[in-house]
Design a protein that fits this description.
4 domains; Nuclear Transport Factor 2, Chain: A; 16 helices; Alpha-Beta Plaits; 19 strands; alpha/beta
């Protein structure tokens, strides 16, 4: 049955029932658009002169009583609930180091009775009153336990005191006031430290230092405060400089001041440091320990490890701060790969050399090859280099500007057009286009490059592989690009690095692969290059100011050789061919003689004759 809707009148409704709950919203300001004033002066609008009779005496008193009897004034139906403006809701507690607890009118009671009463209500939690004090009949204390702080807050008005009152408790985050480190405080710190020092083991236990009962009178000396920590380390270095172990666990430590390194350096015997259950997050917190001799470190229950991707990275970074570390978080660490040697062994180390020659037999070949190759390369006709390259050889050029170079430096435009830098040239077709194949294409391309004058005294040479079948040679140095129209000082100076793969062919050698890298020379390279201008300068000579190059020159000068194969190389080629083919030494030498000592050709010839059965059986008979 539909609900009856009754009419509403402007002043009142004579019907006591059936009124509609439908809210009506009006945007009118009143009669004639004016706001009705002084409506607050007539609170008893319900009792107008319409025949109603006031049976309760004072009208204002009845009105006020009705307001008090209502638990909440909701206003119009559907309107938001109005709250007492004096109502205060405490903010939720967050994780913090310390919390301040206030017991209202707690100063009237015995402190031990209050503690016993709270422990009984908060069981199984156990806690102490830290830095307690009274103020205006209220009792205050600190706690560093988050769970205890939350439980105490929830116990508000739930604990009955002996006099029948409910205990009012307020808890908020707060840090005890620190005290200046004067001589009085230092004396108290010394007393606490002496009580915690074990002379037999030379160990100092500073676990929960600020919570020591000696500071229970309100003296706040946390190690998180730099002045307190500095005073502690000064006392250690002054009175217990032979200390071996120190335990700093559970002190809420986040970092150590770098200035502490001055005191830590004095502790020559310090080997064990425990920092368990602190708040260390950054590896830089240990900068002050970098020069220490600590071998054992405990860091469990710190957030630091969570910032590393794996344990290996974690151990590696910790060892950068503690170079002598052998035990971390209770685990033995593998030995450190170190280049530290005893002073008496330094004289036994080999003398450093600028050039590396893997085989002394290759020195002469390197000497002849470099002197002849770059003499032709710096000449007016580079086409003569065709004799140095194999028919199937390959060449590639790569160029790149040095980092942080000045904007006005000489450009590398003459080399970047065919730059085969694999970081820049990513697609395969372009890479293939910029690869020079065959001796003819290579020498024609080299002839198009700018003219050059190499400073042979700047060469650094590495012979990394020398076998009868393959030679791998690296050479680097500087060269300049001469120009008749400009002065010598304005000629561009470049740095180059070149890698040659060389194979024996006939009575000599040929380049089968050549890779050239060119960049602008550094300021130091420019300053040290072309100091001695001489027509006789060669790879065997060097300026006296460069000792490393001078050593390299000595290595290369000591060998006398030519591009022809010597007896040692020939014997190695014979033995290698005999191993690969199964022929005896005599027939292997015969095969190489008939192929002009071209090893690849000798292998190919053997394969062809073997497939036809043309090699006699005696070739495989070994004495």
């Amino acid at each position: 049955m539909p609900r009856a809707v009754y009419k509403k009148y402007y002043d009142h409704d004579d019907r006591a029932s059936g009124s509609s709950n439908i809210r009506k919203v009006s945007f009118m300001n009143g009669v004639g658009g004016r706001v009705k004033k002084n409506r607050h002066k007539f609170p008893n609008n319900a009792m107008l002169d319409d025949g109603d009779v006031n049976m309760g005496g004072n009208e204002r008193k009845q009105w006020n009583n009705r307001k008090k009897n209502k638990k909440q004034y909701k206003g119009r139906p559907g309107s938001p609930t109005m709250r007492n403006p004096n109502f205060r809701r405490d903010a939720p507690l967050t994780l913090s180091d310390w919390y301040l607890v206030k017991l209202f009118y707690g100063a009237k009671y015995n402190e031990h009775d209050l503690h016993r009463l709270l422990l009984k209500h908060l069981a199984p939690h156990v806690f102490k009153f830290y830095f307690s004090f009274t103020n205006e009949n209220h009792f205050y204390f600190y706690t560093d336990n988050y769970e205890v702080a939350v439980t105490l807050r929830n116990a508000n008005r739930k604990i009955l005191l002996e006099d029948g009152h409910l205990l009012v408790i307020r808890v908020k985050e707060g840090v005890p006031s620190s005290v200046p480190v004067d001589e009085t405080i230092k004396s108290r710190i010394k007393a606490v430290m002496s009580k915690r020092y074990v002379a037999e083991t030379k160990a100092l236990d500073l676990t929960k230092f600020a919570n020591d009962p000696s500071f229970a009178d309100g003296t706040f000396c946390p190690l998180t405060r730099p002045p307190i920590m500095r005073a502690v380390w000064q006392i250690i270095s002054e009175y217990t400089s032979d200390i071996v172990a120190i335990n700093l666990s559970s002190n809420k430590l986040v970092t150590f001041d770098d200035s502490l390194s001055i005191e830590i350096k004095k502790l020559k015997n310090l080997r064990i440091v425990y920092l368990e259950d602190n708040k260390i997050k950054n590896i830089s917190a240990f900068n002050c320990f970098k020069e220490s001799e600590v071998t054992e470190l405990e860091l469990r229950k710190n957030p630091l490890k969570s910032f590393f991707k794996d344990n290996t990275h974690y151990v590696s970074e910790i060892r950068k701060k503690f170079p002598k570390l052998t035990k971390l978080d209770g685990m033995e660490l593998p030995p450190v790969i170190s280049f530290d040697v005893a002073a008496e062994l330094i004289t036994q180390l080999p003398t450093p050399q600028a050039a590396f020659i893997c085989n002394p037999d290759g020195r002469g070949i390197v000497k002849a090859f470099l002197s002849q190759y770059f003499a032709i390369y710096d000449s007016d006709n580079r086409l003569d280099l065709a004799q140095a390259y194999h028919d199937t050889s390959a060449f590639s050029l790569c160029s790149f500007y040095p980092p942080n170079q000045k904007s006005n430096i000489v450009r590398l435009n003459r080399y970047t057009a065919d730059n085969r830098n694999l970081f820049r040239v990513t697609d395969y077709p372009r890479r293939k286009e910029r690869l020079q194949l065959g001796k003819r294409n290579i020498v024609e391309y080299l002839s198009k490059l700018p003219k050059s004058q190499h400073d042979l005294s700047s060469f650094a040479v590495d012979l990394s592989l020398f076998t009868p079948l393959l030679i791998n040679l690296f050479v680097s140095g500087v060269f300049r690009e001469p120009s008749p129209s400009t002065s010598v000082k304005s000629w561009p100076v470049r740095h180059f690095s070149r890698a040659f793969l060389i194979v024996p062919v006939g009575q000599g050698f040929c380049i089968i692969n050549d890779t050239l890298f060119i960049t602008n020379a550094t300021e130091d390279q420019v300053r040290c290059s072309f100091i001695e201008e001489s027509q006789n300068t060669s790879v065997l000579q060097s300026p006296p100011q460069n000792r490393q190059i001078d050593q390299a020159v000595a290595n290369l000068t000591s060998a006398v050789g030519s591009v022809e194969l010597n007896d040692t190389v020939r014997l190695q080629m014979v033995e290698t061919l005999a191993t690969k083919t199964g022929m005896n030494v005599a027939w292997s030498k015969k095969c190489l003689d008939e192929t002009n000592w071209d090893f690849d050709r000798a292998i190919w010839t053997f394969t062809q004759l073997q497939s036809k059965g043309s090699i006699p059986p005696e070739a495989f008979v070994k004495c």
